[in-house]
Amino acid sequence: MIFETERLIVRLLHLDDRDAFYGMMSNPNIMNPIPRQAMDRETSDACFYKYLNLDSTSKTRVLAVEEKETLSFIGIVAYLKNNEEEDEIGYRLLEQYWGKGYGTEITKGLINFGFYNLELDLITADVNTTNERSIKILDKFFSRYSEFYNKEDNCTDRRYKLARKDWL
Questions:
Q1: Above 90 in pLDDT, residue 168?
Q2: 99-132 as b/e: b if 16+ CB within 10 A
Q3: Fold observed for domain 3-121
């Protein structure tokens, strides 16, 4: 276990997460708000194994989220570097777990772990400006910083920032 919240456990990805990961990455309702194309099995598996095999020298850490009550894989979270080499968090949850407050809970957990355990000074989060669910979550914790065209995803993203001094 990497960290836990009231209802969730964040841990390393396991090989047996592969099918649930594909269920998430192949779902257009999950991928479109990012916006990314839903993945076929081959693309999802390539992505999964890449995340599974990230080593400690990587700037990106992708972790599994499971529900404490059922020990079921419900999504992923990530610590990565944005295009300005700032620390960024991200999350993605299976659709059946939306609307239960897990997005808010895991975002708060990512912030706490980032500041208390990773000793980050600043955490950012980027979101497509049409992704209303994620905007609602990020507005609870972060300050809106800027909007910009994301060429890779062909959308307008909003960047949020939160300084350690403003959280602790």
A1: no
A2: eeebbebbbbbbbebbbeeeebeebbbbbbeebe
A3: Aminopeptidase (3.40.630)
